[in-house]
Fold this protein.
Amino acid sequence: MIRFDVIQHCHLFAGLTEGDIGLLSSIIKVRSCSRGEILFEEGERATGFYVVATGKVKIYKLSPGGKERILHVVQPGNSFADAAIFADGCYPAFAETLTAAELYFFPKNDFLQLLHDHSQLSINMIAGLARYLRQFTTQIEDLTFRDVPARLARYLLSLADHGKGSLSLPVAKAQLASNLGTTSETLSRTLRKLSDEEIIQVAGKKIEILDADRLYELSEGFRDE
């Protein structure tokens, strides 16, 4: 059974309506994979792309000596190999399941035909990707100009309801540290410092915002030159 929430979570489809997702569901092929399955190899002709419903997939290349170099680990709700169906038509790397996984496969020809036949779906996809690009641009600006406490404050405020109440981190702290461009140790120190200053209260993945005004002020800070 295809889960609509998985498709909605994918940035590629963030701008789609329920009707759009219904159209997409008509072409999706659900693929259940065991750990260690090779999904495609570098240079292979692209026949479609995937969205991860459950499990994890690693994208990697092989060096001339045969050494594996992981480029990315794809988590649930994310797509991979989508660019290959628009570019030269070949997969740019290898893909292999790291765990047992359920994948949604979008056949290239069916997907492109769907975009051709339903122009509003294409427009909605572009709108969603434009929002994602703006978010990505903001993230790059934060990594460039803001220090770790400011980045963390902005992230927490983005999850909170107008900076009030409690929230739950949607990812592990190690993944959050990576997303914020820092280390797990630095993130832990920053969380502890904000907790000591009674700006937030931390209990595992649960965080309560105690002083939204100070957290907002912190979020506006920039790196010291």
Observations:
- The CA atoms of residues 116 and 223 lie 47 Å apart.
- The mean pLDDT is 85.
